[in-house]
């Protein structure tokens, strides 16, 4: 949306353009039309989200420039804020000479203020104490006030202005419009709104909701052991140029990076252990599209300023609800659409519910892409590649083709070429279905691991890949015995199923690995 689409007069629009305002902020987008209609309004949004223009732009529309009486008042908690708001309003009034505004607050000579009020101003912006002062002296009359704004209501109450506010509101004609803005809401504010606002429209803007709305949000139930596989499948299906994956700890980031690299994805880690200069370098490379997947912790989520991230994955459900909004706010920026997927393991479902409540987000349930879907995508990619070569019509190998044609028919040649071209992109059929294994918890089970010294496998490789692929930390793993051609790994029974499934079709040190229960 742009300010052009809002029902504001041309002079204001020109002034907005001069001030560099192009797109309304979320609170402005929601507040301006409602306040223009004359409705009472309660707006909650954080500092710096543009609340001032949310009320002052519609306020300006309501002022009768030919009438010099006070028609609108804005109550602010401090002198600094009153001055700031007045400056902002004057910016919007740049091309409207008939409308005047002043800021009145304690600490400035009351005589000066009286003189200015006498000259005729339509918009008075002030602190409650000083406004009351002028009311008592009858130097400020409120009987023509059509609109009354309580800005930073929470701050005003914190500063003990409750009674003053009530006194002022009681003195303003009852047919007025009242709007209230606050960064936070509490019972006392709600009581004021009940008493003095009529049938108000309430809008609460979560930090970054702007982006959140444009993001398709999906949750997927997974087993811990399937997470990395699920992630790789999602990347293959969505095929984002840029994706960010969030883990809850640095260790999880490092483990996942290991798996992604082993599987030939271009991925980089970003977390608190990486020095600032290193982080900046990684961000720059990401912006330039030098790699596809950034794996990060929450510590750095806020600092990530990359515009065209198409896919965000919560590899772990965030520990704080607020983080969810920060994380997924990395995608869907500037009107682009984005996708955000959250992996949910077992009991984490309730955590997801509280995230939904907190962020007001619509999160659909999805599922891990199936192998059939993956294969379809892979075929599509191959076909696209071939088509694009045909389209470009840049063929340099006529002599090879001629030679092949001497002995083979064209279809056979094509079949052979496809086998070569598909290469590592060949349809997956090597992942077995999830295996059910029944062993008792606590019972130590010996696992057979098909890699050994000849594959240059070390204890840390085995522990690392089990941690990364199965989410099972090294301290849970017992004795590891690495022999020449294979190894044995002892683990408690409760982890066996996750390890065997999680390690399916995985590589360790570039070797396909296979784990099963040892037959002794
Ligand atoms: P809040 O009252 O919510 O803390 P402000 O109204 O003071 O926020 O606005 C914060 C800053 O953003 C101000 O410098 C303001 O001029 C600027 N601003 C507000 N809305 C817009 C907009 N739509 N486009 C550009 N800048 C804006
Ligand atoms: Mg403000």
Structure write-up:
With 520 residues, this protein is α/β, with parallel strands linked by helices. It is built from 20 helices and 20 strands. It has a seven-stranded parallel β-sheet with strand order 3-4-2-5-6-1-7, sandwiched between helices. Strands 10-11-9-12-13-8-14 form a seven-stranded parallel β-sheet, sandwiched between helices. A four-stranded antiparallel β-sheet has the order 16-17-15-20, covered by helices on one side. Strand 10 (267-270), helix 13 and strand 11 form a beta-alpha-beta unit. Bound molecules: adenosine-5'-diphosphate and magnesium ion (MG). Residues 51-52, 151-152 line the site of magnesium ion.
What's this, in brief?
This protein is an alpha/beta fold.
Q: Which terms would index this structure?
A:
seven-stranded parallel β-sheet, elongated, 17% strand, alpha/beta, binds adenosine-5'-diphosphate
């Amino acid at each position: 949306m742009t300010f052009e689409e809002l029902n504001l007069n041309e002079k204001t629009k020109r002034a907005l353009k001069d001030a560099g305002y192009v797109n309304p902020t979320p609170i402005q987008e929601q507040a301006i039309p409602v306040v223009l209609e004359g409705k009472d309004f309660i707006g909650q949004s954080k500092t710096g989200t543009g609340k001032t223009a949310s009320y002052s732009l519609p306020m300006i529309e309501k002022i009768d420039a030919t009438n010099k009486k006070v028609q609108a008042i804005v109550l602010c908690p401090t002198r600094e804020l009153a001055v700031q708001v007045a400056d902002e309003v004057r910016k919007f009034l740049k091309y409207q000479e008939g409308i005047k505004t002043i800021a009145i607050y304690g600490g400035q000579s009351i005589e000066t203020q009286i003189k200015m009020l006498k000259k005729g101003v339509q918009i008075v912006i002030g602190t409650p104490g000083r406004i009351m002062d002028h009311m008592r002296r009858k130097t400020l009359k409120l009987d023509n006030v059509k609109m009354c704004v309580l800005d930073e209501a929470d701050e005003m109450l914190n500063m003990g202005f409750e009674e003053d506010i009530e006194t002022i509101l009681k003195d303003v004609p009852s047919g007025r419009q009242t709007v209230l803005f606050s960064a936070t809401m509490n019972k006392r504010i709600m009581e004021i709104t009940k008493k003095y606002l009529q049938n108000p429209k309430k809008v609460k803007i979560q930090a970054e909701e702007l982006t959140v709305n444009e993001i398709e949000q999906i949750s997927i139930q997974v087993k811990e052991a399937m997470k990395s596989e699920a992630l790789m499948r999602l990347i293959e299906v969505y095929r984002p140029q840029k994706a960010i994956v969030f883990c809850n700890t640095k260790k999880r980031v490092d483990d996942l990076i290991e798996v992604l690299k082993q599987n030939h994805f271009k991925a980089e880690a970003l977390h608190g252990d990486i020095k600032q200069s290193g982080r900046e370098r990684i961000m720059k490379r990401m912006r330039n599209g030098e790699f596809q997947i950034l794996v990060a912790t929450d510590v750095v989520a806020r600092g990530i300023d990359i515009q065209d991230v198409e896919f965000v994955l919560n590899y772990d459900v965030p520990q704080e609800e607020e983080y969810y909004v920060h994380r997924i706010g990395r995608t869907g920026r500037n009107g682009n659409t984005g996708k955000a997927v959250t992996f949910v393991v077992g009991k984490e479902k309730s955590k997801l519910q509280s995230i939904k409540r907190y962020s007001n987000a619509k999160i659909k349930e999805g599922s891990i892409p199936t192998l059939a879907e993956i294969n379809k995508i892979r075929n599509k990619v191959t076909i696209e590649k071939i088509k694009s070569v045909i389209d470009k019509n840049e063929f340099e190998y006529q002599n090879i083709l001629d030679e092949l044609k001497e002995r083979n028919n064209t279809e056979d040649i094509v079949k052979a070429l496809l086998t070569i071209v598909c290469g590592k992109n060949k349809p997956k059929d090597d992942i077995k279905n999830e295996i059910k294994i029944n062993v008792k918890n606590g019972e130590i089970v010996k696992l057979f691991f098909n890699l050994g010294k000849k594959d240059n496998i070390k204890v840390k490789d085995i522990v690392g890949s089990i941690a990364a692929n199965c989410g099972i930390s090294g301290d849970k793993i017992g004795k590891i015995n690495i022999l020449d051609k294979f190894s044995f790994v002892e683990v408690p029974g409760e982890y066996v199923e996750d390890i065997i499934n999680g390690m399916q079709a995985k590589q360790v040190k570039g070797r396909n690995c296979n784990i099963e229960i040892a037959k002794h």
